[in-house]
Every structure is written in structure tokens, then in C-alpha cells.
Amino acid sequence: MSDIFISYAREDRSRVEPLVRLLEDQGYSVWWDRELVPGASFERVIDEAISAARCVVVVWTRESAGSEWVQAEAGDGLERGILVPVMMDSARVPISFRRKHAAQLIEWPKRRDSHEIEYLLRGIAECLDREPALIGVADSSPLARSSSITRSKLFAGVALTLALALAFVIYESQLPAEPTIRLGVADHSIAVLPFTDPESTEVTSTEDIEARAEIAYEIAHTLGRIPDLRVISDEAVLGMLAEGDVEQIRRKLSVNYLIEGSLPNQATPGLITIRLVNTLSGVTLWTERFDTERDPLSSIVSRTANRVARSLELTIPGDAEIARVPENAYLVYLKGRAELRKPRTEVARAAARKQFERAVVLAPQFSEAYAGLCTAYIHDYEITASPDDFEAAEKRCHRALTLDPNNNDVHVALGHLFHYSGQHARALDSYRAVLANTPFNTDALRGIGVTYW
Prior knowledge:
single chain, alpha/beta, 50% helix, 11% strand, elongated
């Protein structure tokens, strides 16, 4: 009986072999070499091996994704609740396996990501109900293999202190199955916690609380532009703050990475501290400090988002756009966004329109401000059903689209506009345009769900 059955396509044998050696170095028994199975008894031997295995590791590649054998073996593991998937290519995984989170060993074995290898080993350990060992990611030479057990024993005490965590990706609604929407990329997920007071004072003004929540929201919003990054909505984060401490929130959010930070009171300006934490290992990947008297908010948000993207080897399309917007216009725009998130009272709607109008006066080429103004008028139209409000919304949305036809916020606003005008097919097209670039955009997912409803 083997601990692990590895399901893979024969074309990937040379790529799978180093993975087998890595698992064997951890003390696992692995069944994988189907090349040794006689042709006449192939199906019987495979069935016996997978039935006896306690864990099924499926290696998804461009070749294996289309293999009926691999799909059948993975299906067996999924049905028994012992499937641990590994992505070695950015392949289109069969739909029934897309909700099972995979370790991302892209370009393996040329590229070896220690965090993803650790994530894989933890998944296997949980599958087998045993404690994983700490690992090295160097090539599996004979010397390395001979010393692996010693290393495992040496670090066993440390391994026991590491928190077990799995980041399961749950879509808020079902995505349209279109080839333009990328799949299998949700290995990067992140949440941004509202910032704290570094002095931990008991008395905190409403303005300070709002400022700390606002900078976290803007960083999360900017991170949402990254196509291959799933960002937990601020509503979900805020909803958990009352449920427990930071450690409990980390576990409940089920994300790979967390942004935490501190912001001093407005009365005592100082340094803003922001850090990126790997929740799987508990390691702080980097910490950066900004001077509130020298660094404008737009620069802090942009630099933080770009550093996160670089750390995860991702890119932000058009990441320089906000940096080109004058700081005074950006701050007014943020106030408008804050008003949009409030209950839609007449006062809040009027305040949102006022702030966005000021922003476009200060920065006439600011497409996102026009999109915000479009959304504000749509909120008015929801209440008043006035043709004037709809016409005002339409005018601002079209201006935003002219300024930046590729901006996600613009297409989300257009989706809302089409939805409330009864043009549901065009609304879906607008939301799909966003999802084609950023599959985890919560505004577009919510919009497409409401439109289908």
C-alpha cells in the first residue's frame, strides 16, 4: 500500500519525477511509475493502486487536463475526499475540479516556490492526517535525500508550531464559462485589515477610525485591478472585526496573504507602517513605512499595491494612472467613494455627487471620478426614477468610457447603467468585460448575479 498515488500524463514524466523524489524525501511511499505497468493489466493495476492509496495527488498540465485517465483518477480522489491538486501549467482544468484549490508549481522543476511546496506538503499531510516536515527546495540529490530524515527530525519541533491553513477559493457567484475568464489562478488571495492606532489609545475620533478604514479600502480597491489576485471584499473583512482577534480573522478569511498596517492619529502625524504577511507560514514578507507629512495618500496606496504585485510576481494594468492624478483631486474622489458606501440617504447621495463633481473639476481627465459620478446619479435614479437623473448618469458614464475604455470601474458603472435601463444583455457584457481582466472582481460578480436574477 502506498501513501500517495500520483495521477499525471505520460508526457509529463520528466517533470513529475522530481516531485516524486521530493515526496519520497519526506518519508512518503509513492505510486507513480505507470511506465512499468504491463499493457494487458494496466487498468486493473491502476485501479488497485489508487484504491489502496490514502492520498491522490493530481498534476494538472496542458497534457493532463485533456487526459480521460487523469480526469477519472482525479475524480476518484475527489469523490473520496483525498484529492490534492498541483498546477504545473496555467491549464484549463476540467470544470468539476476548479473549486479545489491547487498548489501552484508553475514552471516546475525549473522554478521552485518554497511557499507553494510547503503548501502542497501541508495539504498532503492533512490528507494523510500526519504532521508535515519542514522542507528544503534544492534539487533532490542523493546527499540531500540521505539527510532529509535527519532534517525532518531536527525541525520537527518547529514544524509543530506552524499553523495549518488552507486557502479554499469560493466564488461569490457562478462565473460565465467563457474562455476569456482565466481559471486556476486563485492561488493568490489577499485581505486588507483596517489600520490600527500604533499608540493604542483608548479614545479614538470618528475621523481617525474612518481614515484607517479608508486607506485599507483604497489599497484593497487598487489590488483588485490585478487579474490573478482574489481580494476579499471590505464588507467581509469589516464584518469579521467584531467576531474576534486578528488571529481568528486570519483563519476565517482563508487567504494566502494579509495586509496589516498602523496609522497615527490625525492630531499627531507620523509614520504609516504597512506590512505583507504570508498567512500560511505566519512570516512577514516585508514592512514599509511612509511619512504622512511627506508622502501623499495616492502615492502610499499606489506604492503599496505595486509592491504587493511585485512580491507575488503579478502586474497591475495601468498602475501609474492614480499617480498621475493630482493629490487634491484624488483626496476629494476618495471622499466621494466613502459617501457611496454609506446608506443611500438623500444627504449621502448629494454629498457623493458634490465630491465627484469637485474631483472632475480638479482633474478633467480623471475617468474613475466620472465613473463615480455616474454611479452616484444611478443611486439617485433608483430612488427618484427621474429621467433627468438617468440622463446625467449616462452622460458621465460615456465621458468616463471615452477617457479610459479599459478601466474596470468604468465598465462596472456602465453595467449598473444598462441594468437600470433594462438593457440586461448589455449589462452582462459590461460585467463580463471586467471579469475577463479580473476574474475575482466582487463588484462585477455581484452585478452579474443581480442582473441574472
